[in-house]
Input
Amino acid sequence: MKQTIALIGFGEAGSTFARAAGWAGAVRAFDIRADRAELAAQLGVPFFNSAAEALSGATLVLSLVTADAALAVARDHAALLAPGALWCDMNSVAPDTKRAAATFIEAAGGRYVDVAVLAPVNPARMNVPLLLAGAAAEDAAQALPGAGFADIRVVGDEIGRASAIKMIRSVMVKGIEALTAEMMLAATRAGVAQEVLASLDASERRDNWFTRAAYNIERMATHGARRAAEMEESAKTLSALGVDPLMTAGTVRRQREQAGHTIPTPTNPQGTAE
Output
């Protein structure tokens, strides 16, 4: 790697990338948790006691902190950046948070890049899909492969676009997890888990998401009121089993509000088949 790379945050993501890409001696790291210096040493990554030392002369910075710290880190470290340094904000935060962080970085002479990490870093490691957005996204797309990243796509020059894709996608991904937990808590307590899962397997649709989204929206527009009433009974079922119907109650409201209203859904640019 010809560029000088700094990692702000050396938790799961930073250490995973360092191990997978063989960053020993090639990057420098800083983390507010001093106990992570031991792991950095094991991986051959120089660990600095201050962000200023880690960022000194760095041309590419990967911000890999917790979501609640992403904005403050950009604000507090912006003045420490070398002129023109690329600040790749890889944290999972809202588009408005990314835009706010960008104002600090750019005001200090840095180049801010909105980076969305679309999969867990383990087991994907350096093949984890990265979406890039912002005026400096193309420059980052040229720089990141030098650090070992292999799956990079620029999605626009508007900061927040990459994170919008990530955050809105997470509504489904994390929502399915939460719905699964709510369903399984109730199914287990009712003693019908095997039958419920078998029934879901039998009715599972194999369509791509372009087709599935259009179908689901049409069903709600046409039958939302009736389905809301049914889901109210589902909520009662869960409550009787001692399971708080958090997700189900939201489904009741969304089904009822969507009744009679459609949402435009795009067509699959690659056709209808998966």
Summary: The chain has two domains: 5-159, 166-258. The two ends are 38 Å apart (CA to CA). Residues 224 and 255 are 5 Å apart (CA to CA). The chain has a mean pLDDT of 95.
